[in-house]
Amino acid sequence: MLIVISKNRISWEFVSLLDFLSKRRILIMRLIILGILFEIVAFILFINHTVISDTGSYSQAAIALAASTRADLELGVATEQFINELKSAGLKPVIIQKIKREPFSVKGILIGLGKDNIQIFEYPDSLTALGEGSKFAQKYTGSEATSKWKNVKHVYVKSNIVIFYMGRNTGILTALDKGISPLSLNNK
Predict the structure, then answer these.
(1) Domain shared by 24 and 117, yes or no
(2) Residue bearing the bigger pLDDT, 169 or 68
(3) Which residues cross the membrane (predicted)?
(4) Are 131 and 51 in a shared domain?
(5) What does the angle CA 186 – CA 187 – CA 188 come to, to the nearest 5 degrees?
(6) Is 183 among the domain residues?
(7) For residue 66, what is the enclosing H or E element?
C-alpha cells in the first residue's frame, strides 16, 4: 500500500512500486531536488552555527570567512590612514571585503570592528566624496529618513572618504567623532 499525495487529495492506493515510480517521475524528481536542497541548507546552517558560536556574531563570522580574500584588496591612501587612526584609537579594524552600495559611485571596503562594522568609500577628490556623502546622509539620517533608524545610522566625510556606520557602540562613535564631523542634521 502506498500513500499518494496529489494536488487536491491524499489517498491510499494499492499499486506496485514500479507503476508508482513510472507515473510519478516528476513528483519524485521534485522530492529528490527538495531533499538535496534541504541537505545544502542544513549544511550551511551547521557551518554558520559553528562559526558564529565560535566567534560570537555574524560580523565576526564574516570576518572569519573572508580572511582569505582580504589580502587581495587594494586600499587607497586615505582609507589606510583612516584604518591606522582607528587602531590608534584602540579599535581593532579587520578588512573584510569590497562592497558596492547605492548611491556611491565607487566600491567601498567593509571593515569589521568587533561585533560591528563600518563601510568606507574612497573617492579621487574630496568634492565628490562630500556630494555623494551628503546625498546618502540626507536619505538615511536627515529629514527623509524614517525615525526608527535615524539615530543608529551615522555618515562621516573626511577628506576624500565617506564613512558609514550603523550602530550605537560608544567606543566606535567616539573614535569616529574624533577629528571628523558627522554629516547629518539629525545624527544623534
Answers:
(1) no
(2) 169
(3) 27-47
(4) no
(5) 100
(6) no
(7) helix 58-66
Q: For the segment 136-157, what is each residue's pLDDT rounded down to a tens digit?
A: 887 776 665 555 555 678 888 8
- How far is 98 from 95, CA to CA, in rounded Å? 9
Same domain assignment for residues 36 and 125: no
User: Residue 3 forms beta bridges with which residues?
Assistant: 12
Do residue 111 and residue 34 come from a single domain? Answer: no
DSSP for 102-130, written as a single string: TT-SS-EEEEEETTEEEEEEE-SSHHHHH
Give me 149's grid cell: 533608524
Whether the pLDDT of residue 185 is over 50: the answer is no
Distance from C-alpha of 182 to C-alpha of 188, rounded to nearest angstrom = 9
Domain that holds residue 148: 74-177
Q: Which of 185, 75, 171 is nearest to 134 (CA)?
A: 185
DSSP state of 185: S
Tell me the pTM. 0.58
Hunting for cell 550602530 — which residue is that? 167
Spatial distance between the Cα atoms of 135 and 184, rounded to a whole number of angstroms: 10
Question: Which grid coordinates belong to 152?
Answer: 543608529
Are 81 and 146 within one domain? yes
Could you give the 3-state DSSP secondary structure of residue 141?
Answer: coil
Instruction: Count how many domains the chain has.
Output: 2
The β-bridge partners of 39 are none
